[in-house]
What we know:
By secondary structure, the protein is of the alpha+beta class. It is built from eleven helices and 20 strands. It folds into two domains: about 230 residues, FAD/NAD(P)-binding domain, CATH 3.50.50.60; about 150 residues, 2-Layer Sandwich (D-Amino Acid Oxidase, Chain A, domain 2), CATH 3.30.9.10. The protein has an eight-stranded mixed beta sheet with strand order 6-7-5-15-16-17-14-18. Strand 19 and strand 20 form a beta hairpin. Helix 3 crosses helix 9. The longest helix has 21 residues.
Amino acid sequence: MAKHGYTYSAGKLLKHGLSSGAWPRMWRRPEARSSYDVAIIGGGLHGLATAYYLAKEHGITNVAVLDKGYLGGGGSGRNTAIVRSNYLTPEGVAFYDRSLDLYNTMAQDLNLNVMFSRRGHLTLAHTDSALRTMHWRAEVNKLQGIDSSVIDEHEVKKQAPSLDTSKDTRYPILGALYHPPGGIVRHDAVVWGYARAADHLGVHLLQETEVLDILCEDGEGPEGKGAGGRVTGVRTNRGDISAPAVVNCTAGWASLLSNMAGVTLPITTHPLQAAVTEPCKVFLPTVVVSGSLHVYVSQTDRGELVFGASVDPVGTYRVNGTLEFTEELAGHVLELMPGISKMRLLRQWSGLCDMTPDYSPVMGTTQVDGYFVDVGWGTYGFKAGPVAGETMAETIATGRDADLIAPFHISRFTEGDLVGEKGAAAVGH
């Protein structure tokens, strides 16, 4: 029996495709209610996953997901779809490994092919210090039961034959951190799967619904907001919606929205650019990352090379591409793989990344009762989408931070208990 009631046999699929019958919508376009039990701001992967797990695991179905545009139109649709769990801290490793587990079973759980492809993940080391960091990460990973090890340049060549591993390059490859479970997933399919499943469970997905303010009472500071306050709902371009729980699952605008609730976040926002080439025969079987060259690359099943780099150095909300990025990216990629010099770049794009001081997210409860945050994801939010939704749903349902996200509480910045992931996330992937 199909989950969520969406299955076609091959014959029925062909018959329906050749007929003039309309295809069913993947999700409804409901009218907004005046009140919900939970209002989730952000219709990307994190917001949709939170709504899905609230309904599926905790029976909380009177939930609204609000997005000022369309579902998946923000960071969820602008990332490079890489997943892995070989992070640097024990807290980060455990968190992302749970997400990777959920990705592995997602196609069955959501009854939708999300095109998960286990490729293996190589983080290249070009210097002795980088190689020491790889050994450090490998040991942390092994202690957490993660499949991760340091390999030399000869094994790197076996895993990715197109890489230049000779000694006479500007940045010779000395070795790499090899993480076999890493891979890529079709980001749009993940969004569609969670959206359809959440809608089927009764969640309202409200597109073109912009949140203009977060309504609070009984707090300190301007307009009754701040420590000791309590959320009562949100104000949108379609009217006020009351809700005793409001969740900020946005990327790019997280700090601006949080200010509406009187909660200050230690976040700066930077663009992250990426690009894709024309398709060709698949020749790159793994995901390749170079921290020294500030570049990462993978190849899709269709044969396109997907490139990215680190975030732009200047904080801004602009999402246009730049020639400087393209020139620098192309130069670094060709240092790794000179053989692709004739490939044509088809397009580039940009998204917004909310960066925290320790390169870890801000999750869970806040000093404002009923206001929850799932923000500050930098360049690694896609990897965490499933587990973020699962743990945020648990946190909202129980009123206490789930164990996996307790280290990411906002209080760590004042208590000095940071979760430093820069060594594993400085390039983003």
